[in-house]
């Protein structure tokens, strides 16, 4: 067993408590903390009217529009857009449609207020009203947010589903398997995710009652995957999120490990054969197992066998008897190799999970939700809420412990109340959740808080601060849960599990004593946490607890954007530079606001800080920034980029907070593309040693069917290939270079690909045919400008030596690297790279319809004609009016001098475009280089725990 778990358990054994029954009496007394009696929270802030208009990335049409929505002036346009488009209820354009944030908050808070008063949570109606006022204030000021299902459903005519996370069960019967399909589908329909452990299903090595061989769990995964894919395609709120788990001693474990890695091989083969396997591509539907996260559940026995180099037993599902033995290290290496290839499977540590389980007398924990933070009984659910940690950080780097404690009290009380009125997708889930009342309070903005207060994410002092905050949050939550139990009684399953529940509470309290502090701030927080655990355990020994579970660390994608957080969940900062949406539309590039606060806390004056911020704005990183001491570089380390946090930095942060969570953390350990299989083995092994419950890994660029990272070498290779092609043509055919005249017809267009702006000038021969291309991006002298110059020269020379344009189009279209994404071209809405866009645009401008149709490059008008059953050839027309251009350029056979192309690169386009930081931002985000594009708005999604979230519209692939 991991060392940290042993230490906590040893301390816990000295604590003995027994369950003492206590009749519920009275109700909760509530004091005002944030509000003022007689003044409504809405009257304390300034409000303004805004317009929300969202366009369709495919064709530029408007897919959402609501004007005149009312929001506080301090809410960002991004948060306004997300709340308006996702959480406003009622059909747009009808009187029933919500028109401002006040209505949304009031709809939700009213339900909690009424339910709390009705079910006896408060001592008086006045206490209930104060609670409602305080909850309103906290939501209004972005101190916390409920998970998305609350905003979707509470206070509406829809079922009051409040939970985002579900765990299902499946037995070794066809009826149970079909029930699993149905239940999972209903959960997806409600905008939530579910996980399941398939280990009870007999393996393909076992017999059916009829005498034939069983098909095994993997065959049934196919049907569930297809169902999730169908629901995902038609979902209105978010894409299906699911987790599939298999125990390491299941006889089919090796086939399970290989499922998604083998599908990646299929994707490669399909791509190379010319099939459309991009995200959302029509041929991706033939690829299986892509809608689930896969995880292997390992035991201490298995991990010890890995450590010692011994074998272990695979056991039959019906009898539990040994079927065969396998080399543990070989299976462990297969796990790491598959994760190296495609990021699956993740790993879950069964003995650690169940050692911290408060209800083992009811049943074991077999599974988790899709993002691995919720771990509890089968057929159960968890509603989430997350705190915005930056709201409690003082300008001087102090942490407001008192306001944090009070906020946790209000939030945990509200979450508990929600179970009294909540609806659930199945009766089994309803029964388990009402009997055990699992909650999932967590936080967001930890990365921003650490940076702003001058702590490196990957540092002992940073981890101590995170551990203290987590211990305080969970300690207050359980103390409040024990107080609520004194009012309305403990959870129904508590009496059977009183001893193990108290044992786990003692383990949490003992773990707090093991944390080493480094300064006044973390010491103050930890002292408060210890006091909360002591008080809560004393109260719980008498009252019991109202909730079997209190805390998790979820991805918090959408709700983090709603709260205007810089970072999500437990994640570090993704980049030092980001884009901020403006009220009037568009966006501006800014340095994260946490950077100036960090510099101030580190002792830099205003002039020095300004110079450092300017340097970051220009370069996207801090290396070499003026005035900045090298010992402070680590404070500004991000998930990836010029200075990136090491994989073990992520693992150590998870280990620091794990002893203070009821559940686990949703987090992916990011590794560079150069990482080896051995690196992943080490991460998985150290996760066990450090007492983590679960983790997943992601190696940059391991996915095939998604955009690749920005790598200068790919562009350089493309340039080299073009030059080599030109040389080969010369050697084979000894052609004569046909130079362009001094005066030739040309056009210049501006373009934007994934936010990176540029200009392209293309010139043709006066009689016919493209003869040269000039590309201008970024500032003269930069690497990108130099690469574009080289590409322009090589293409232009090759064209003049007779290399056909169609060959370039064939070779360069569909090349993937960053910048990539949406463009401002109505005929090419998405591009997988700069060169992909450039050659698609050149094809549309200079190739005839028949040649373009053969390779699938058509204008919007031509595609529309195809859809309408018309002849697209009749609507096609050259984008460039060559005749008009030729009319202004008389035929002049005087050749240009040998340096004409090079001179033109420097002289023809003298426009300094704004230097895009989107490529810097994307490459600095751990998994974002491979992050999918949002199915709703086309924006590249952002990692949020082990899931993805869209900053553009708030869509997410997991729980929030």
UniProtKB/TrEMBL annotation:
Keywords: Cobalamin, Cobalt, Disulfide bond, DNA synthesis, Nucleotide-binding, Oxidoreductase
UniProt-listed Enzyme Commission number(s): 1.17.4.1
Lineage: Bacteria, Bacillati, Actinomycetota, Actinomycetes, Glycomycetales
Coiled coil regions, renumbered to chain: none
Family from the record: Belongs to the ribonucleoside diphosphate reductase class-2 family.
Species of provenance: Glycomyces harbinensis
GO molecular function: cobalamin binding; cobalt ion binding; nucleotide binding; ribonucleoside-diphosphate reductase activity, thioredoxin disulfide as acceptor
Source domain of life: Bacteria
General function of this protein: Catalyzes the reduction of ribonucleotides to deoxyribonucleotides. May function to provide a pool of deoxyribonucleotide precursors for DNA repair during oxygen limitation and/or for immediate growth after restoration of oxygen.
Descriptive protein name: Vitamin B12-dependent ribonucleotide reductase
């Amino acid at each position: 067993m991991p060392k940290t778990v042993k230490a906590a358990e040893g301390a816990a054994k000295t604590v003995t408590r027994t369950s003492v029954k206590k009749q519920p009496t009275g109700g909760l007394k509530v004091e005002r903390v944030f509000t003022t009696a007689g003044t409504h929270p809405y009257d304390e802030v300034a409000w303004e009217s805004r317009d929300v208009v969202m366009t369709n990335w495919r064709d530029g049409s408007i897919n959402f529009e609501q004007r005149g929505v009312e929001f506080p002036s301090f809410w960002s346009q991004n948060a306004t857009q997300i709340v308006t488009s996702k959480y406003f209820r009622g059909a747009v354009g009808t009187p029933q449609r919500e028109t401002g944030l006040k209505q949304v908050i009031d709809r939700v808070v009213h339900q909690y207020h009424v339910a709390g008063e009705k079910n006896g949570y408060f001592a008086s109606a006045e206490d209930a009203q104060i609670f409602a006022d305080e909850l309103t204030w906290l939501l209004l000021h972005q101190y916390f947010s409920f998970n998305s299902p609350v905003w979707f459903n509470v206070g509406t005519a829809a079922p009051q589903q409040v939970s985002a996370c579900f765990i299902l069960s499946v037995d070794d019967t066809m009826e149970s398997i079909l029930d699993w399909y149905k239940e999972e589908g209903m959960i997806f329909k409600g905008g939530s995710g579910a996980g399941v452990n398939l280990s009870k299903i007999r393996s393909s090595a076992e017999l059916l009652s009829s005498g034939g061989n069983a098909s095994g769990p993997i065959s049934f995964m196919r049907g569930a995957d297809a169902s999730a894919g169908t629901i995902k395609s038609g979902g209105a709120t978010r894409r299906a999120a699911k987790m599939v788990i298999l125990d390491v001693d299941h006889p089919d474990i090796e086939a399970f490990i290989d499922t998604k890695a083998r599908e990646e091989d299929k994707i490669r083969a399909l791509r190379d054969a010319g099939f459309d396997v991009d995200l959302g591509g029509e041929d991706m539907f033939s690829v299986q197992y892509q809608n689930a996260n896969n995880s292997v559940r390992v035991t201490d026995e298995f991990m010890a066998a890995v450590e010692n180099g011994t074998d272990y037993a695979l056991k039959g599902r019906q009898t539990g008897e040994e079927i065969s033995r396998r080399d543990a290290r070989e299976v462990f290496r297969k796990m790491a190799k598959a994760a190296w290839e495609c990021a699956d499977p993740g790993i879950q540590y069964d003995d650690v999970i169940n050692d911290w389980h408060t209800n083992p007398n009811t049943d074991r924990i077999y599974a988790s939700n899709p993002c691995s933070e919720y771990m509890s009984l089968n057929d159960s659910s968890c509603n989430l809420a997350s705190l915005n940690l930056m709201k409690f950080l003082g300008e001087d780097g102090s942490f407001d412990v008192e306001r944090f404690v009070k906020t946790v009290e209000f939030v945990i009380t509200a979450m508990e109340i929600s179970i009294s009125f909540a609806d659930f997708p199945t009766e089994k889930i309803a029964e388990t959740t009402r009997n055990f009342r699992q909650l999932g309070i967590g936080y967001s903005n930890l990365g921003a808080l650490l940076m702003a207060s001058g702590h490196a994410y990957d540092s002992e002092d940073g981890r101590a601060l995170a551990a203290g905050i987590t211990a305080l949050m969970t300690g207050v939550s359980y103390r409040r849960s024990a107080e609520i139990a004194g009012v309305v009684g403990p959870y129904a399953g508590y009496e059977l599990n009183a001893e193990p529940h108290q044992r786990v509470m003692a383990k949490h309290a003992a773990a707090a004593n093991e944390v080493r502090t480094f300064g006044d701030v973390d010491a103050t927080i930890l002292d408060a946490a210890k006091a909360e655990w002591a008080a809560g355990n004393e109260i719980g020994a008498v009252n019991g607890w109202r909730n079997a579970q209190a805390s998790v660390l979820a991805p918090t994608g959408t709700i983090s954007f709603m709260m205007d957080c810089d970072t999500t969940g437990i994640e570090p900062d993704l980049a030092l530079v980001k884009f901020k949406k403006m009220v009037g539309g568009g966006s501006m590039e800014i340095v994260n606001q946490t950077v100036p606060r960090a510099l101030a806390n580190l002792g830099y004056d205003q002039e020095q800080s300004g110079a450092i911020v300017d340097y970051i704005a220009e370069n996207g990183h801090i290396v070499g920034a003026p005035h900045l001491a090298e010992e402070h570089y680590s404070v500004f380390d991000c998930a990836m980029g010029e200075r990136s946090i090491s994989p073990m930095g992520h693992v150590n942060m998870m280990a620091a907070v794990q002893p203070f969570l009821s559940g686990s953390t949703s987090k992916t350990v990011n590794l560079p593309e150069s990482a080896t299989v051995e690196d992943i083995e080490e991460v998985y092994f150290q996760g066990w040693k450090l007492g983590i419950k679960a983790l997943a890994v992601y190696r940059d660029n391991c996915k095939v069917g998604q955009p690749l990272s920005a790598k200068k070498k790919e562009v350089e290779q493309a340039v080299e290939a073009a030059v080599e092609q030109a040389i080969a043509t010369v050697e084979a055919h000894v052609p004569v270079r046909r130079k362009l005249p001094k005066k030739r017809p040309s056009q210049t267009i501006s373009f934007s690909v994934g936010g990176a702006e540029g200009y392209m000038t293309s010139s043709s021969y006066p009689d016919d045919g493209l003869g040269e291309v000039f590309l201008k991006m970024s500032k003269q002298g930069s690497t990108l400008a130099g690469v574009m110059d080289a590409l322009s020269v090589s293409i232009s020379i090759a064209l003049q030596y007779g290399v056909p344009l169609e060959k370039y189009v064939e070779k360069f279209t569909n090349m993937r690297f960053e910048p990539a994404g949406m463009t401002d071209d109505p005929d090419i809405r998405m591009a997988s790279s700069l060169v992909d866009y450039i050659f698609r645009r050149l094809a549309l401008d200079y190739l005839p319809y028949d040649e373009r149709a053969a390779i699938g490059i058509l204008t919007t008008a031509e595609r529309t004609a195809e859809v309408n059953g018309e002849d697209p050839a009749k609507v096609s027309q050259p984008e460039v009016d060559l005749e008009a251009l030729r009319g202004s350029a008389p035929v002049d056979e005087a050749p240009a001098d040998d340096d004409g192309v090079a001179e033109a690169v420097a002289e023809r386009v003298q426009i300094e475009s704004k230097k895009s930081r989107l490529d810097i931002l994307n490459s600095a985000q751990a998994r974002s280089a491979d992050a999918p594009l949002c199915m709703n708005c086309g924006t590249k999604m952002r990692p949020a725990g082990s899931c993805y979230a869209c900053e553009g519209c708030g869509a997410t692939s997991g729980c929030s």
